[in-house]
């Protein structure tokens, strides 16, 4: 073997060694790339979990920045968020430290770094191979020595939410696979920010709707209370007017009729035996008419405001009313049960109880065609209870109460208002052919002035 052969063999061996070195380097690069891509994919999975879990924008972007560098997929990462007008609202970083504040200050002072300016106003996606040379006005460009950067606009449905920038080895900054993964991450972050905005807007609307509803309910309660006070005053005025008219009838017309009757009877006695009976016959006929008129005036007075209520109380008044009712409607069997003492009935409820009894019994006489009626007034479970029942024809409560067009409906509404305005509850139960039950109940702690 001569020198030439040895040289050729050495040259071939050197070529093979060089090829082997290249393949080893290529394998190492491929291995590093796979490792890097795995780290990126792992970071993306962490980001996806954060997007699902986190509902606060600040916490979300801080968690994303930390996740992107945690698996050594990127050297550093930072996110700046802007509002609809492009003004910075917040920002987060991982791997930059205190220098990140300088970026925020430059943006706020309208001296936006190159990557921010281009991504927010021009290109949605930007790759910077050598930030140290290309981004001279960036306060963190010195940190990118030997690395490139990738920036992407965070945008969804036309709304720009901000910018995401990461630092990567220069070799990967030009990799299409890296670009696609990064774009996917940016799109996912933008969609997450959009979802947070939608949810916040929904909650704001719910709060506004709830506040509007509460305000309306308060106004309705206030107006209802005002109407209740007005109704109470009207009923008070009505009772006062009834009492005044009853007193005027008693002291005026009632006494005049009594005086006239007395004078006619006196004249008849004086003329008796002195003139022919035929001459005073008309005077004899006048006496029963005067008596009947007096009785009618007395009935009107008692219906307007029975003096017995003020003199003897509600129990005596109910007893008197029942006797009057029985004398007029003798075909109706009336049962009265009183299980309470006079002093156990609040003064403010006495006239209300009488009016409900009066209205209910008048309705029974006019409409029920009943053969039996029962009245109960008593104390049960620290509450005063009034109940009137009949076995008459009954009726559809809903139809009558909603129509409000009949005298019966008007009377039922009046009873209900009297009971509820005084702090009680009112219920009427009836159906065709099954009679009617009227119930009013007042808790002693809830009784209001009438």
TrEMBL record:
Its protein name is: histidine kinase
GO MF terms held by the record: ATP binding; phosphorelay sensor kinase activity; protein dimerization activity
UniProt cross-references to InterPro entries, sorted A to Z: GAF-like_dom_sf, HATPase_C_sf, HATPase_dom, Sensor_HK_TwoCompSys, Sig_transdc_His_kin_sub3_dim/P
Q: Which catalysed reactions does the entry list for this protein?
A: ATP + protein L-histidine = ADP + protein N-phospho-L-histidine
Q: Name one GO cellular component term.
A: membrane
| Enzyme kind, highest EC tier | transferase
Q: Where is the Histidine kinase/HSP90-like ATPase domain?
A: 348-446
Species name: Desulfococcus multivorans DSM 2059
Q: Which domain of life is it from?
A: Bacteria
Q: What's its EC?
A: 2.7.13.3
Q: CDD domains from the xrefs?
A: HATPase_UhpB-NarQ-NarX-like (cd16917)
Supply the Pfam families for this chain. HATPase_c, HisKA_3
Q: Which UniProt keywords apply?
A: ATP-binding, Kinase, Nucleotide-binding, Phosphoprotein, Transferase, Two-component regulatory system
Is this entry keyworded Kinase? Answer: yes
Cross-referenced Gene3D superfamilies, in alphabetical order?
1.20.5.1930, 3.30.450.40, Histidine kinase-like ATPase, C-terminal domain (3.30.565.10)
Say if the entry is tagged with keyword GTP-binding: no
């Amino acid at each position: 073997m001569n020198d030439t052969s040895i040289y050729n063999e050495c040259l071939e061996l050197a070529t093979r060694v060089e090829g082997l070195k290249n393949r080893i380097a290529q394998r190492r690069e491929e291995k590093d790339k796979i490792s890097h891509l795995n780290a990126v994919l792992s970071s993306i999975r962490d980001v996806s979990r954060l997007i699902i879990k986190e509902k606060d924008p600040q916490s979300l972007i801080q968690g994303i920045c930390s996740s992107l560098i945690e698996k050594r997929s990127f050297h550093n990462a930072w996110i700046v968020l802007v509002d609809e007008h492009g003004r910075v609202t917040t920002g987060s970083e991982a791997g930059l430290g205190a220098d990140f504040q300088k970026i925020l200050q430059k943006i706020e002072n309208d001296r936006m770094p190159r990557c921010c300016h281009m991504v927010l106003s021009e290109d949605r996606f930007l790759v910077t191979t050598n930030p140290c040379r290309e981004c001279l006005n960036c306060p963190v460009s010195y940190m990118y020595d030997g690395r490139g950067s990738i920036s992407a606009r965070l945008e969804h449905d036309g709304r720009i939410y901000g910018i995401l920038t990461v630092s990567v080895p220069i070799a990967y900054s030009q990799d299409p696979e890296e670009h696609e993964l990064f774009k996917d991450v940016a799109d996912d972050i933008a969609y997450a920010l959009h979802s947070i905005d939608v949810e916040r807007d929904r909650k704001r609307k719910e709060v506004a709707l709830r506040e509007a509803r509460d305000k309306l309910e308060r106004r309705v309660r206030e107006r209802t209370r005002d109407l209740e006070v007005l109704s109470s005053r009207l009923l008070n005025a009505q009772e006062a007017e009834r009492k005044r008219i009853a007193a005027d009838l008693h002291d005026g017309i009632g006494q005049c009729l009594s005086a006239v009757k007395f004078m006619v009877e006196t004249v008849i006695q004086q003329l008796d035996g002195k003139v022919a009976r035929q001459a005073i016959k008309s005077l004899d006929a006048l006496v029963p008419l005067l008596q009947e008129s007096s009785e009618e005036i007395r009935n009107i007075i008692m219906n307007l405001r029975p003096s017995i209520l003020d003199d003897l109380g509600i129990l005596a008044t109910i007893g008197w009313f029942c006797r009057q009712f029985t004398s007029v409607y003798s075909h109706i069997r009336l049962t009265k049960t009183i299980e309470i003492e006079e002093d156990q009935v609040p003064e403010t409820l006495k006239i209300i109880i009488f009016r409900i009894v009066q209205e209910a019994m008048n309705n029974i006489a006019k409409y029920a065609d009943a053969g039996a009626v029962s009245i109960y007034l008593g104390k049960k479970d620290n509450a005063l209870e009034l109940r009137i029942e009949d076995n008459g024809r009954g009726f559809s409560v809903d139809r009558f109460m909603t129509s409000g067009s009949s005298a019966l409906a008007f009377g039922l509404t009046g009873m209900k208002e009297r009971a509820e305005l005084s702090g009680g509850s009112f219920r009427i139960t009836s159906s065709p052919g099954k009679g009617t039950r009227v119930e009013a109940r007042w808790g002693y702690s809830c009784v209001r002035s009438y």
